[in-house]
């Protein structure tokens, strides 16, 4: 029956035998997810229980509405950093918002992200995930990681840091070095070292789990709070009631803009995660369907006093490595965290803040994908530059503005790629069929009495002037006796009015030299534009052909197109 319900695709075909795999997987997901669920809210200045709430309700919502069997959603460091910036902008923009509970603002943003997801699904805008290319995301996350690292200075040292940015907090702590609480600092560094030792030796116990257990035990034995080491403090043992945040007390324009920024990063990074794991498991990833699952997984935390989430690569990796089969693993992890909230809140209360700082610092460093940056440099120096631009934007302008810089860098990159489309004169190679680029094949020879020119891209307002100059240069350099210039438009899918004007100018130049201008393989949409612009009338409808060979046979004779 479950398989017949489209909203339960992650549980389709479920049978009880799967529980032998899904229960251990769910327990492992909860064990690994609990430390990050407690630590990540600190990035946005939220209480630790909000991370547990998000790690409970989001997987339940995704299990119901999400399309994937194996993806696990939850708190994400990059998403939390963008959330922190959005919340800061909201509080700064509206003095009355400063009196609103920070949790309420985070919940409002989570609901906003969910609404954006649903709206994008209805408009079939899953392609938005492609706006942040892999190089842009790698660079942006590297910048975000540095912001997270700097944000842990106060938690490591026990010193309240007033300044923001990248260098200012470093300079501030240097000036306040006499205030550093050295027991906190040394304990935080020791837990940071434990995390890297676990990773270096590939121990079976997850590093964050080990750090939380050891920290709680040491805190209980040696009364860390009594010795000045900050601890988490009271953690509610109950679950929040279903409620809506007080939108009327918040600047709605900032809520919308903040939600859009969080949505773009959360969905962009989430789809990268989904496709990465999908390539390993053979599971098809439909970005538009994932919008429904991600939307529900964000609306649920918004209704239960929490914050926006994304697809979690670490939790999904644990699910795969421990043999999870369906979304039942996510439901088991949620149930386990509910038990932890009820029975372990006393232990969580004495968890040292420097231990959370160590977990966050390690998570931040893991966001810096040095291998991927090297790979991007090896593949394309230009894409590496855009990765650096995205990283610089997140560092220099703040994370929220860094999203704008990253998106702008993406569009600049796309424009750069399409502004100078590949083009060239074509000719024949003796003994071989077809046409060949004269610049790429030295043995190719131009067609006698004709010039065949191909453009592999659209002719639009931002490249029309460049292509007009290219075509004009070709027209002026045509050898004496050339009867026609044939434009191969088979790779041109769109021509706008500016592009039409460029072709009209070329037609005028060729007409003065008594050279026929012909176009082949013109799309219906482009033909309509050229007809309305008068270009077809200028060159003659009889000079439009369905192929280069047909055009040359008609213009030069039967032997020309062979």
Describe this structure in words.
The chain is 59% helix and 6% strand. The protein contains 23 helices and nine strands. It has helices spanning 19-39, 49-65, 77-93, 102-122, 134-151, 153-157, 167-175, 182-200, 207-222, 252-281, 287-303, 313-321, 328-343, 345-349, 353-366, 370-379, 381-396, 398-419, 464-476, 497-512, 524-532, 535-539, 548-556; strands spanning 73-74, 310-311, 422-428, 436-437, 445-446, 450-456, 484-488, 516-520, 544-545. The longest helix is centred in the middle third of the chain and has 30 residues, at 252-281. Helix 1 (19-39) packs across helix 15 (353-366). Mean pLDDT is 88; it is low at 1-5. It has 562 residues and is α/β, with parallel strands linked by helices. The chain is elongated and about 95 Å long. The strands form two sheets. Strands 3, 4, 5, 6, 7, 8 and 9 form a seven-stranded mixed sheet that branches. The protein has a two-stranded antiparallel sheet with strand order 1-2. It has two domains: 41-368, no CATH class; 422-556, Transcription Regulator spoIIAA (2-Layer Sandwich), CATH 3.30.750.24.
